[in-house]
Amino acid sequence: MSDRGFTTCLWFDGQAEEAAQFYLSVFKDSRPGRTGRYTEAGPGPAGDVLAVEFELNGQKFVAINGGPEFTFNEAVSFQIRCKDQAEVDYYWERLTDGGHGVACGWLKDRYGVSWQVFPEVLLDMVGDEDQEKATRATRAMLQMVKIDLAALERAYAGE
After folding, report:
1. 81 is in which domain, residue-wise?
2. pTM of the predicted protein model
3. Per-residue pLDDT, 2
4. Contact (CB, 8 A) for 62 and 68
5. What is residue 95's predicted lDDT score, i.e. its pLDDT?
6. How many other C-beta atoms are found inside a 10 Å radius of the C-beta of residue 48?
7. CATH number assigned to the domain comprising residue 116
8. Where are the beta strands (DSSP E) in 57-108?
9. Has residue 136 been placed in a domain?
């Protein structure tokens, strides 16, 4: 992996390697990177995993075993724009395994990382210049935990 550009750093309390493997198993377009280990210099035990690099759908990440000082919250989330309901279902099933749905296509995975899983067309619907269509789509979305594209399309159409 190149050192240029942006890399998202995810802070874990001992689960960096496990989390990286989990995400690599979820995203079909993924690849592992380097694994760094603590040395005798510390601060962790020599040989333990310090950080793991990986890439998901072209986005670079590093999972670091930083300790218990920080945890994930909803202030930061990752969007997965899906082409259809099948793709929404795929990511939703895998990322809620050990995690849970929240609302409006948002979920927290088993590590507490927040994701937004939605069909890309949702953005067009809720942003439509026709305010009635946009309002109907938005109201329907606000009632959902996992996005149901067929129900969203019906609401958008006024059915």
Report:
1. 77-157
2. 0.92
3. 54
4. no
5. 98
6. 12
7. 3.10.180.10
8. 59-65, 77-82, 100-103, 106-108
9. yes
